[in-house]
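Appendix B. Chain record.
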Amino acid sequence: MSEKLKKKELSQLVQANLMKRNSLQSEVLPFFYKMIGEVCKEKYPNTIKQMLQLSLRNPFPYQDLSKIQQDFKKQFSKEDCLNGELNTYWMMISSSLNFLLKGKSISIAPKSIAWLKMSFFDIFPQYQFLEPHLEKYPYLYKEYVHFNNARFFILFYIYLQSSTIQNKNY
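C-alpha cells predicted for this chain:
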C-alpha cells in the first residue's frame, strides 16, 4: 500500500471517528487499534508528520467546563479544580509533543511519560463520574479526543524510539 494511500486512509479514519458521538470509547479505541496496525505494518512509520497535523492550539473549553460544573455541582468537592487539572494534563501532553517535534524526545521527563500512559480519569479519579457524559459537551469532547490522539502518537513514537535503540544494542 502506498504511503499516500495509507495517509489518506488514516486521515479518513480520524475524521470518521470525530464524526461519531457514541462514546469516548468509540472514539479512542478504534484510533488506538488503527495506529497499532499501522505501526506494525511499517518499519519506519511517519508519525512525526501526523503529529504535526494535530491541532492542540484551540482555545480551552471553558464554557463546556462551566456547564459541567453546573450540571454536576453536587458531585464536585470544594477542593476540585477541574479547569486547572485538565489544563495541567493537556499542557503536559502538549509540551511532550513539542519536545518530540523538536527532536528532543529524550528531554521528556519520566513523570510525564508515566502520565502519558494514563488517561485524565486515571490520574484524577475524582472526575471519573464525568467520563460517560463527555460527549454531551461537544467542544470539550472534541478537544479531549484530540489530546488523547496526541497522547497515543507520543507513546507510539517513544515506544518506536526505544525499540530502535534496543535493537541497535544487540
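Further analysis of this model is presented in Appendix C.
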